Amino acid sequence: MPNSSRARRGLLAAALTLALPALALAASPDKGTAAFESVDPMIGTGGDGHTFPGATVPFGMIQLSPDTAMPDVKHAYKWAAGYQYGDKSILGFSHTHFSGSGHSDLGDVLVMPIAGDVRLDPGSPDQPGSGYRSRFDHASEKAQAGYYAVTLADYDVRAELTAGRRVGWHRYTFPKGKPAHLLLDLRPSIYDYDGKVLWSSLRVRTDGTVTGGRTTRGWAPGRQLYFAMRFSQPMVSRLLKNREKDVAYKGFSGPGNRADDTDGMSGRALEGVFDFGNLDRPLVVKVAISSVSEDNAIANLDADGAGFDFDARRAEARQAWEKTLSVVDLQAPAPDRKTFYTALYHAMLSPTLSMDVDGRYRGPDNQVHQAKGFDFYSTWSLWDVYRAQQPLMTLLEPDKSNDFVSSLIAAREASPFGILPVWAYQGMETWCMIGYHAVPVIADAYMKGIRGYDAGKALQAMVASATYGPYGGLGDYMKLGYVPIDRQPEAASKTVEYAFDDWSLAQMAKAMGKDDVAATFMKRAGNWKNSFDTKTGFLRARKSDGSYREPFDPSSAAYGSDYTEGNAWQYSWYVPQDVAGLIDALGGPDAFVKKLDEVFDAKVDPKSFAHVEDITGLIGWYAHGNEPSHHVAYLYDYAGQPWKTQERLTGIMKSQYAPTPTGLVGNDDLGQMSAWYIFTALGFYPVAPGSNQYVIGRPFVEKATLNLANGKRFTVSADHLDAKHPYVGKVTLDGKPLDRVFLRHEEIVAGGELHFSMQATPARDWATGADAMPYSMSRQP
Q1: 382: pLDDT strictly greater than 70
Q2: Torsion angle of C-alpha atoms 405, 406, 410, 412, degrees rounded to 10
């Protein structure tokens, strides 16, 4: 999960809520209603979860949410989503946010409703009244999927937000007797409040539509974002101001104005104040965005933002979430339902729609392109989401997966370097993190029969990415069979992550009948051995002369070291394509299990990782707050001791997730932490995406039914599921005994029932034979 440090190298109460019409939010008889009512968007908004509480729809282009701070880039980690639950004031409401990222940016088109006097600077959170920000109380907040509301205490303004796919909707109820204003500040971004706007423009058009845009040098340099904004009440006056030069233009709006009554400004520090006088009804504001142009933002607003019926739009957002969340019917206690459905909600926020109504989008070359036959999505934290979030989408949202793969291919075709995205958003590349993990995303989809795209172009893009020598030491990797540490930082991690990506590429190539390509990359998939030191039993970085770097301390972790956000204890298990080979390298199953136990049972002071923000959620050396550890608890299955996987998963689920604002121990990373929870709660996990296998752990819900896109239903059920029965005694699939620790994808999509019988003691004779083990390339090439 990328963070600010990594960027430097890779570069009042709920009762106050306005009553909605009874029909608009009447309880739906649909099964999605119960799921919707279980979602709590406040989970993860405190600590290091980095989620936002605001309004959005599934995979929507708009993420309209409150921002409590936009600090400078050196201190932005805690506010990567713009909001921290512990803060006491709100700066305003902006329209774009990452969900759970370890890095900051976005926060575009910040608006703040103001009653009374207007201040043009945000002021200090420690000095109430020093600026336009306002204090608030959590008791006044209401957060639901697709809706957020809060009372701004300093203005006595009730703010409500909802969203559509491309339009953000605001409703502000102002106190009587005070003039109503809306402030628009184009200066701040979550990346850095001041100094990152290269250029911006702001214009009031003849019909009262406010348009503008800006170019920023944030995480993705040169990113362009445009907007169009309309109001349900006419402006009585307006003020546009360039704070950089302290120049202002005043204009007036209303009946009798000339047809050419427009005003506009450009510069790097623009603000607008729009005045509405004393209002006797709420002000509704609607905003559309575009990465292409102001005209396209207007077109998005015209197409997706008709009228000013806020309640209807809120009801539509709710309906969208009810439909999406109804993919799983869950039987579990209320706290577990809250955690589960919020995790499902978070897993279905990204990637985000990044295309206008006319099909145009901006690509990594910063040029405008036209999508044909698919919707273009971006916001790709690929180092994270290829592990579980994208595999979850192949299972629950296969149609979306087609668009996701098509989007990755289209991004590659527009790339100046001819390779797939690494960490991209709004079409733009950041080059953050390591690996070419778009490859396993595509391969996993293809292997599962999701093929609504040009597979030939997909494979071509995958090979191009895997052979682009200038990227991350790939030239040396192809020549030496490993990435040398004297030429590339984090070389040990790069070697093993490249090897997994290569293996996934080989699987797709083989399935396509491209045997020569498959053979090449299958051989490369074994490169993990070239950086695994059998003498010490750890993955280590080697130099270009073949020697291991000395001195070696497996507990050492630092940014830019031999490993990516981790140490040898955490990264030495990253061989998901060949766990059997790793078992052999460590001296066999008993030695393998002994070392795994050392990982979880070690006495580790969390303070020892204070300098590495992402190593959180420690259980011994195991760090659940960061992705490289996510598959590790499942590895006991490969060594014939599945009861130990069950023990470790019980500990992780108990300590690492809670239905509270601080209920995520680390960055949710665009849904990866949440997807891990969903899979694990169901009882299985995709250790090696591309293998079409899910490794069985143990269930944490009494009953869950997946309502699949093909019309089939797959149910997971368990008896004796309580704290006194943490172990799996036996498993049946469609009533027949299942004596293996993996489940095939085709068995799930065919529908049926996976049933667990839980017991108090380990079942040491269940699924321990050689045929019971999941896939490993050295045993099942």
Answers
A1: yes
A2: 20
Cβ burial of 557 (10 Å; 0-12, 13-18, 19+) is buried
Alpha-carbon dihedral angle through residues 515, 521, 523, 527, given to the nearest 10 degrees: -170
DSSP code per residue over 479-544: HHSS--TTTSTTHHHHHHHHHHHHHHHHHHHHHTT-HHHHHHHHHHHGGGGGGEETTTTEE--B-T
Chain-centre distance of CA 156, in angstroms?
Answer: 34
Rounded Cα distance between 384 and 44, Å, is 17
Within-domain flag for 599: no
CA–CA gap between residue 379 and residue 421 (Å, rounded): 10
On the question of pLDDT at 2 being above 90, the answer is no
Contact 466, 502 (CB under 8 A): yes
Type of residue at 570 = Q
CA 753, distance to chain mean position in Å, is 30
Q: What letter would DSSP give residue 73?
A: G
Backbone angles phi, psi at 551, to 5 degrees: -70, 160
Distance, in Å, from the CA atom of 169 to the CA atom of 152, rounded to the nearest integer, reads: 17
Residue type, 117: D
370 in any annotated domain: no
Q: Are 165 and 61 contacting, i.e. CB atoms less than 8 angstroms apart?
A: yes
pTM of the complete model: 0.94
Which residues make Cβ contacts (< 8 Å) with residue 290, sequence separation at least 6? 225, 226, 227, 228, 296, 297, 299, 300, 356
H or E stretch at 335: helix 334-347
For the chain, how many structural domains are there in total? 1
- 3 state SS for 129-146: CCCCCEECCHHHCEEECC
* Residues of the domain holding 253: 12-324
Question: Across the strands, what pairs with 753?
Answer: 715
CA dihedral 308→309→311→317, nearest 10 degrees, is -80
Rounded Cα distance, 465 and 366, in Å: 20
- Centre a 10 Å sphere on the Cβ of residue 62 and count the other Cβ atoms it contains: 29
Residue 274 lies in a domain: yes
Give the containing element (helix H, strand E) for 737.
strand 736-737
Q: Are strands 423-425 and 167-173 parallel, antiparallel or unpaired?
A: unpaired
Is position 565 within any domain?
no
In angstroms, the CA 605 to CA 602 distance is: 10
Nearest of 685, 34, 58, 649 to residue 395 by alpha carbon = 685
The token pair that represents 73 in the structure block: 């880039």
**CATH number for the domain that contains residue 207:** 2.70.98.10
Average pLDDT over residues 175-199: 89
Sign of CA dihedral 642, 646, 651, 656: positive
Burial, 59: exposed, middle or buried (Cβ in 10 Å; 0-12, 13-18, 19+)?
A: buried
Q: How far apart are CA 738 and CA 763, in angstroms?
A: 14
Residue 13: its pLDDT value, please? 29
**pLDDT-derived band of residue 73, with 50, 70 and 90 as boundaries?**
low
Long-range contacts of 255-261 (CB under 8 A, 24+ apart): 257/206, 259/206, 260/206, 261/206
